[in-house]
Design a protein that fits this description.
two-stranded parallel sheet, 5 helices, about 170 residues, mainly alpha, about 25% helix, elongated
């Protein structure tokens, strides 16, 4: 008698012959069309994070990160998302792509304050630039023109800094 391929159990009240075709059958070469080049068993290839195969989900314990507590992954290469505390007291909100530290102040808040109350210099006072804030206060924001241009430049530019010289975060 020849060995028949293992068939999955049929649900009750279903005639034989229905179900997935060739379920459990193996081609003559021993591998299926989708597992070419993959090995099974104790000598299987491991991915870069310890999960089996080239693609797939991480094994138990998650991804193996570069640091942190066991079972927690880190960010590769030290890159962290903006706004994440990095532990550096000189840059509590991280660094921008050019290596400049982010400020705790927002450029969106500064720009909106400058557009709404720029004739009083409120946006510049928020950023910590007291001298320019007083100049805008005394000139009524350059009759509104200086305040308008300054507010637009704060919103669309990337080079505005606070009183400590740190770049405003977005």
């Amino acid at each position: 008698m020849t060995d028949q391929p293992h068939q999955p159990p049929q649900p009750p009240n279903q005639p034989p012959g229905y179900g997935y075709p060739n379920a459990g059958a193996t081609p003559p070469g021993g591998t299926g069309p989708y597992d070419a080049g993959q090995q099974a068993g104790p000598y299987a290839q491991q991915g870069p994070y310890g999960n089996p195969g080239q693609y797939g989900y991480p094994g138990p314990g998650g991804y193996a990160g570069p640091g942190g507590y066991p079972g927690q992954g880190g960010y590769p290469g030290g890159a962290v998302p903006p706004g994440t505390y990095t532990g550096d007291p000189n840059a509590p909100y991280g660094y921008d792509p050019y290596g400049r530290p982010y400020s705790e102040k927002s450029k969106i808040v500064a720009g909106v304050l400058q557009l709404a109350l720029g004739s009083l210099g409120i946006g510049r006072f928020y950023m910590g630039n007291v001298g320019i804030g007083i100049a805008q206060l005394l000139t009524c924001g350059g009759l509104g023109v200086w305040a308008l241009i300054d507010g637009i430049m704060l919103l669309v530019g990337n080079s505005a800094t606070d009183s400590d010289g740190r770049v405003l975060r977005g």
